[in-house]
Amino acid sequence: MIQDGNQRMKLGVTGGIGSGKTSVCRVFNVLGIPVFSADPEAQKIMNSDEEIRKGINKIAGRDLYEGGNLDRGKLASLIFSNPDILAKVNELVHPAVFAYFEKWTNEQTAPYSIMEAAILFESGASKLVDRVVTVVAPLEERILRVIKGKKLSRKQIMERISNQMDDESRMKLSDYVINNSENDMIIPAILKIHEDILNHLNA
Fold this sequence. Notes:
alpha/beta
């Protein structure tokens, strides 16, 4: 993507569930780089946008907002066992998230900004960014992190992994790769990427 005077560079950060992309983004944030986390933003939109609320109920065939906000557990059980429902929900929600990201990006003043998204490539969000970082980690480490952090079962985690692109495919499409296993130091890798981007912008 060619930058013009009004457009700042955008970096995508992606990785499978439990890879640690949120931890990576926290380090970028400490360096002064603003981070747009697509998943939480999508959740906000699914709760606040009336048209999207109606659309999700129509796709689900029942009311998933009985408590006022979206019952994420019920939605997850539907979408991760039915690829058609997952695709329809994504088609409904992604354009709204992308539009919000573009608006948010235009408000930032840092040299570049980040979109953090688990399904950056699958959703088409990779077209909105200039470069991509993929965060990878060994499968068992990822599973243990998610079990500890999100209280999901191994079966639920594997369902989510099967609905995401594999690491090898992501890495082929990325400009940078960060190994986030217990034995790898992520901060030097992040600093190197940060420096590379700044050098590119100042060239």
